[in-house]
Write a sequence for this structure.
């Protein structure tokens, strides 16, 4: 399995996740429009929507835009995982989130600890969030990064000439990892997290994709 082969499978996997999130989200919203489950599915649907946008930006002259969407995606995914914790403190946070201008910051350290027990590896969510934040705001670091990207495709004589593979491979890997982590966030049930009740039989390509992505991209951030 190569990243190119995984990339070809991504639209099917995203389609299956989208249909199941909408189905279950609708059920949860009918039961209680501001429940913990409803909040989780609203965030899952936002994350899948952002992944669709990211898939349209896998080209060298759109890498900046891809980074900005990646940061928004990470915030939604990490808040979704935070909201899955089965305790009253989190349910209080969900209640506040539904209020106008409600707080939305994920509990990165708590989710990191949970995922480390699950997989044995540190997900480094807080580190990843900070890194992407630096690239999505108009900081000097972000501007220099943009200048290097634009020089590479708009003025190759002044910039560094790169092949498409050299330019995009890490971004493609990031995108595939993002899909895999959303699968973990929404379809894996473990003690300490509320079950979301997604139906695996409606998503036959999702778990194989997650396993293939994990095997191929192990250790990638």
């Amino acid at each position: 399995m190569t990243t190119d082969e995984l990339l070809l499978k991504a639209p099917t996997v995203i389609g299956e996740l989208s249909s199941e999130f909408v189905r279950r989200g609708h059920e949860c919203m009918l039961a209680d429009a501001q429940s913990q489950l409803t909040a989780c599915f609203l965030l899952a649907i936002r994350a899948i929507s952002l992944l669709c946008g990211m898939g349209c930006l896998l080209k060298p002259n759109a890498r900046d835009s891809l980074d900005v969407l990646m940061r928004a995606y990470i915030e939604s995914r990490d808040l979704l995982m935070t909201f899955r914790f089965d305790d009253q403190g989190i349910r209080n946070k969900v209640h506040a989130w539904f209020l106008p201008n409600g707080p939305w910051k994920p509990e990165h350290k708590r989710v990191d600890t949970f995922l480390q027990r699950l997989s044995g590896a540190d997900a480094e969510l807080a580190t990843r969030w900070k890194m992407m934040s630096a690239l999505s705001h108009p900081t000097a670091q972000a501007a220099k990064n943009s200048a290097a990207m634009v020089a590479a495709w708009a003025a190759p004589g002044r910039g560094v000439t790169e092949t498409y593979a050299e330019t995009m491979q890490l971004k493609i890997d990031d995108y595939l990892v993002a899909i895999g982590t959303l699968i973990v966030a929404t379809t894996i049930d473990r003690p300490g997290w509320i079950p979301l009740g997604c139906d695996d039989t409606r998503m036959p390509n999702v778990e194989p994709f997650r396993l293939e992505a994990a095997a191929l991209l192990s250790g990638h951030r």
Observations:
- The chain has a mean pLDDT of 86.
- Residues 3-205 form one domain.
- The chain is about 70% helix and 0% strand.
